Amino acid sequence: MPTTDVSLEDGAIITHPDLVDLRGCRIGAGARIGPFVQIRPGSSVGPRCKVSSHSVLCGNVHLGEGVFVGHGVAVTDEEAPQGEPTPPTRIGAGASIGSRATILAGLYVGRGALIGAGAVVVADVPDFALVVGVPGRVIGDVRDGGTDRPAGLAGAAAGAGTGEGR
């Protein structure tokens, strides 16, 4: 797979260089890129980020420092009406995006936010928000340990793996 016009900063690691498709992007110092990842032109991965396997960062996506991207995440890049390019998609420092989540183009995901696995983010996400579902909705604040969850979700999580809470 091609790797063309890529800026790799000190300590950046591409775990399987023959199994990525990186074009016209910047990979920050200490970042780690897994296999089968696509990163399109104009995108940047900040320092100490991890982009897990099978993820796609379309054009003009910018990850802040220390962002975690789980397996199979897609950040889209569809065009705005009248064929104008979409504004950049920005993921704030320290955010975590769960496996198979989708983030629509031109959005902002706040610093420290946590996007649950499989969520579809269709609107900007505040700093430190906990977002789950389709469409994605804020259900708590990660600084509170996510304690503002709906009762059914909190009960299921409390009994996870114990046979209780079912």
UniProtKB/TrEMBL annotation:
Q: Which InterPro entries match?
A: Hexapep, Hexapep_transf_CS, Trans_hexapeptide_repeat, Trimer_LpxA-like_sf
What is the protein named? UDP-2-acetamido-3-amino-2, 3-dideoxy-D-glucuronate N-acetyltransferase
Per UniProt, the keywords (alphabetical) are: Acyltransferase, Repeat, Transferase
- Which Gene3D superfamilies does UniProt cross-reference here? Hexapeptide repeat proteins
Family, according to the entry, reads as follows: Belongs to the transferase hexapeptide repeat family.
Q: Which PROSITE patterns match?
A: HEXAPEP_TRANSFERASES
